[in-house]
Amino acid sequence: MTPITEVEGRRLALSNLEKVLYPATGFTKGEVLHYYATIADHLLPHLRDRPVSFLRYPDGPDGQVFFAKNVPPGTPDWVGTAEVERVEGPTRMVLVQDLASLMWAANLVTEFHTPQWVVQDPGVADRIVFDLDPGAPATVVECCEVAVWLRERLAADGIQAWAKTSGSKGLHLLAAVRPTPSDQVSEYAKGLAVAAERAMPRLVLHRMTRSLRPGKVFVDWSQNAARKTTATPYTLRARPEPTVSAPVTWSEVEECGAPAQLTFQATDIAPRVQDYGDLLAPLLDPSGAGSLPGSLPVSPP
């Protein structure tokens, strides 16, 4: 019988709690739900008001993995939703606004992916992101070198950047920006990716061309497009082990000498949060947002 749990006054059926989702470590679905419950206070602010794309892996990363953008069938009526314009037409998507909604979504077994804008101002970015993706034999170690260069380049424009692991092979750089149309943010990000390639031609690539990527770090600037999403801070990833897209300190980035130093699993996150708090909390403070050079910031609605 599926156990019924009450979360903030909402009744939830949490299923298959003993099911092993990560065979490499024996990490179960119950442990996945426990992870999200314990990290909720830090995860929810990064999800709030951002329509969520789910990358679902209900049978673990070795089973079927698929994106789900529409509101899933059977979604409780108390889960927030919003209509979002997409290329294929209007789509109703989930908003994870509270602990009950988070636990309902986590029960689907999913990665959380969000855009760089909030639903009240669609297509107007309040964040800029760079996804640093290494091509073997390059690793996150090389990503760290590129991240430090980008940090300094952004700082020269008055924009303060923060880092998190992708939870896979690479590193993400994020910064808060004053509300600016996504296409302007994308153009600025592309300019910095091109500049990074010129500064470090043996290490950096700004194009996605697969044949050019071995041994280099692809600086993916395109995730700033309004239609794109990026793995949300603190989300678990559909990887062989329960790795997390974890915020990291700049000291950890600067001192990284091996990929294992920037690989964090679900069980690592609570102690890190106890030590550091939310390292990405500055992204949530509009007073610290920077302005893109030459951009035309948009007044909030």
UniProtKB/TrEMBL annotation:
Q: Record's Gene3D superfamilies?
A: DNA primase, PRIM domain
| Keyword Ligase part of the UniProt annotation | yes
Q: Name one Pfam family in it.
A: LigD_Prim-Pol
Keywords in UniProt for this one?
Ligase
Keyword Disulfide bond included in the entry's annotation:
no
Start and end residues of each DNA ligase D polymerase domain: 28-279
Instruction: Enumerate the InterPro entries for this protein.
Output: LigD_pol_dom (IPR014145), MtLigD_Pol-like (IPR033649), NHEJ_LigD (IPR052171)
> A single Gene Ontology molecular function, please?
ligase activity
The record's NCBIfam families line, in alphabetical order, gives: ligD_pol (TIGR02778)
Q: Tell me what this protein is called.
A: Non-homologous end-joining DNA ligase
